[in-house]
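User: If only I could read backbone structure tokens as easily as an amino acid sequence. Underneath my words sits a plain record pairing an amino acid chain with its backbone structure tokens. This is the protein in question:
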Amino acid sequence: MNFNFKQIATATMILFAVIDILGSVPVIISLRKKVGHIQSEKASIVAACIMIAFLFVGESILSLIGIDVNSFAVAGAFIIFFLAIEMILGITLYRDDEPQSASIVPIAFPLIAGAGTMTSILSLRAEYYVENIVVAIIVNIIFVYAVLKSSSKIERVLGKNGLSIIRKVFGVILLAIAVKLFATNINQLLNN
């Protein structure tokens, strides 16, 4: 086992910024108002299963279609970059239609375990040990569950301005991560 606290902390922060569950509180609240109840436990467990499964089989899927992890990581750096721009500038470059029901589909996927999260997981796999990423996923899912359970309290405590500030701070962190991810993997691609 190659447990490394620094890797776990970094992977946790990256996934926390990409999942952006605090930034999703307004969406969660509007879903709760529409359908009355969100199954927090079910959504969290399904999202964790999707992320862990993708961590282990994502690379195999890529090799099946002839793409190496470094190429995927560079592509992932672009996605993370655009997510960060959205968070910092408060704009929406791309967003699916708002889900009509608060079932597993809109909450677990794509809200929690969406394209950005999947890309980040594979990008992390290019740099970190798998066990550290699994711990980071579990830590994030525990936090996601807590946020889903107490989304209305969070909205009352932070208010719109508080949520906006948190979103922008994590956007800047995400932007720096995207630049580092790009620089690391583009060098490996160019050297091959």
